[in-house]
Design brief:
The chain is α+β, with helices and mostly antiparallel strands. The chain contains three helices and 13 strands, in the order αββαββββββαβββββ.
Length: 188
C-alpha cells in the first residue's frame, strides 16, 4: 500500500506541504535532493546517472569554464544536478553545465530562477533526441542566448545562438567549442 506523507522533510529546502501537492511544480519540488529529474511543459522526465564518457567531458569543460569565468569575473558556472527554474509553473531543468553572466546574477537564489545565458547538454545514449529536440526547443522558447550539445561518443559539438528569437547554427566541431558569448574556445 502506498502512503504519502506530505509533512516529511523536503531535502531541497522548500516549504514542506501539509496537504497534497496541487501543481506539478509542487510535486517536482518534493523530489529528494539529487534526483535526476526535469519538468518540461508540465511533464516530469527522469533519467539514470550519466555514463563515464559523459562525465569525462563534463569534468573537462566545467573546469575550463570555471577557471575562465572566475579569471574574467564574467559570471558563475554550475554543473548538474542544479535546478534551473525557467518559470515557476511547469519548466525546471538540470542542464549539465549552466553559465549566468555577471549582469544576470540576480536570477541566482537557492537555485536559478530565470533564464541563464548559456546551457550545455552532454548526450547520453538514451537522451539524444530529448536534448537535441525537446530541450533545444525549450531553451529557444525561453531565450537562452547560447546552447551547446556535445556527443561524447563522437566528440562532436554543435552550438546554437539566439538570433531574432530563433536558434541559428553557431558551429559544428570536434573536440572543441567556440563560444561567441564568452569569446573563447574550450576543448574536451
Amino acid at each position: 500500500m502506498l502512503s504519502l506523507n506530505f509533512l516529511n522533510l523536503n531535502m531541497r529546502g522548500y516549504e514542506v506541504l501539509d496537504r497534497p501537492p496541487r501543481t506539478i511544480m509542487e510535486v517536482f519540488k518534493m523530489l529528494p535532493e539529487g534526483t535526476l529529474a526535469e519538468l518540461i511543459d508540465g511533464i516530469i522526465y527522469m533519467s539514470p546517472s550519466p555514463i563515464r564518457d559523459h562525465q569525462k567531458v563534463l569534468g573537462k569543460l566545467f573546469s575550463q569554464l570555471l577557471e575562465y569565468t572566475e579569471s574574467k569575473n564574467a559570471g558563475e558556472v554550475y554543473l548538474a544536478p542544479f535546478d534551473v527554474y525557467l518559470d515557476e509553473y511547469s519548466n525546471a531543468v538540470q542542464p549539465d553545465i549552466v553559465f549566468v553572466s555577471k549582469e544576470n546574477l540576480s536570477i541566482i537564489k537557492d537555485h536559478i530562477h530565470g533564464v541563464p545565458d548559456l546551457m550545455i547538454e552532454i548526450l547520453s545514449p538514451g537522451n539524444k533526441k530529448y536534448d537535441q529536440e525537446k530541450k533545444k526547443e525549450l531553451y529557444e522558447r525561453f531565450g537562452v542566448q547560447e546552447y551547446w550539445i556535445i556527443d561524447p561518443s563522437t566528440n562532436e559539438a554543435t552550438g546554437y545562438t539566439l538570433k531574432s528569437g530563433n536558434y541559428v547554427l553557431l558551429f559544428k566541431a570536434f573536440g572543441k567549442i567556440q563560444s561567441r558569448l564568452l569569446n573563447k574556445s574550450f576543448s574536451f
